[in-house]
Specification:
Helix content is about 15%, strand content about 25%. A five-stranded mixed β-sheet has the order 2-1-3-10-4. The chain has a five-stranded mixed β-sheet with strand order 7-6-8-5-9. Strand 1, helix 1 and strand 2 form a beta-alpha-beta unit. About 5% of the residues have low confidence.
Length: about 240
């Protein structure tokens, strides 16, 4: 990491469904004098946001073109099927890809799941965005498979979702440009990795003071001068 010229602010990009709020709060507690700006970006444009120097780091979904990027996987999301509340599939706690074989499954252009082959029958046209696909599910056109956070982001009262058991999972990562990191980038990496203030990498800590050894305690052994008798034993009379 370079860091001779530390910037006065930090710009964090994030794709839909990711939730940087808890890390932003920690940033504000540790670096109250350094503003952190949030930059929303579509999933397909996350890597280009970095390459255009429009953000210092980005929360994005893998897989992504990682040429020239560093990426730290943070967590993996459950994949779910978005469907109308009255759909027969809602009777079960989860859904399998086999159950979707005869269903129309929408596959939006901004889908980030790493499919070998999407389940079900494709619709005549692919929706441009996940938001548009959700509207089509509500209209009864088909079903939709997305990361759980996107199902919650586009929640509607007439729709629900169920986990899809045998689908690729969505992995969220923090990414930044190679050879373009700063001290603030390192600070944010430490925050998302759960480092404490005193363990933050790159911030030297003063050595702990040496502990003073306590003097050894001297054990005093008291001898009982009145062996075999009580405290007030009288001297034995001579005959």
């Amino acid at each position: 990491m370079t860091g001779s010229d530390t910037p006065s602010s930090f710009r964090l990009g994030y794709v839909p469904g990711t939730t940087p709020a808890k890390w932003v709060r920690t940033w504000q507690e540790r670096l109250p004098d350094v503003p952190l700006s949030l930059v929303p970006v579509p999933a397909a444009g996350a890597a280009e946001l970095l390459r255009a120097a429009a953000a210092d780091a980005v929360l994005l979904r893998l897989p992504v073109d990682r040429d020239g990027l560093h990426a730290i996987p943070l967590y993996t999301e459950t994949t779910v099927v978005v469907l109308p509340k009255e759909h027969p599939f809602t009777e079960g706690a989860e859904i399998s890809s086999v159950q979707l074989e005869e269903a129309i499954v929408l596959h939006p252009l901004d889908d980030t799941l790493d499919w070998t082959a999407p389940p079900g029958h494709p619709a005549r046209e692919r929706p441009e965005t996940t938001a548009m696909a959700v509207e089509l599910v509500a209209a009864g056109v088909g079903l939709l498979v997305v990361p759980q956070s996107l199902a919650r982001l586009h929640h509607r009262k007439d729709l629900t979702f169920r986990p899809l058991t045998d689908a690729p999972a969505s992995q969220v990562a923090l990414a930044w440009l190679e050879d373009a990191g700063t001290e603030l980038t390192e600070q944010f990496i430490g925050i998302v990795r759960g480092r404490t203030v005193n363990s933050t990498r790159g911030v030297p800590q003063p050595p702990a003071p040496a502990k003073q050894k306590k003097p050894a305690r001297t054990q005093v052994v008291r001898r009982d001068t009145n062996r075999g008798g009580g405290r007030n034993r009288k001297p034995r009379r001579s005959r």
